[in-house]
Amino acid sequence: MFFKNDQNADKRSTDIATSATFIFWCLLFLLNMGSEMIFEVAVVEDSSIMLFSGLAVFFGTLYAVKYYRKNQKRKFS
Fold this sequence. Notes:
elongated; transmembrane helix; transmembrane; membrane
């Protein structure tokens, strides 16, 4: 088997971070498209900025969700 399943992976946190990144990219593309159609100027000119901002949203959300979930477990334990 090439990939092994990680028993310590927090799948729920990863799913939340993936959803947040997808929503962020959708809103960013919508904003970019709207500004190009109305003002004929793009909000974000470079696609690498979109990529790296999405990665920052993903890892930031992942860290925040893991931190929040860890504190919730500690609070109720």
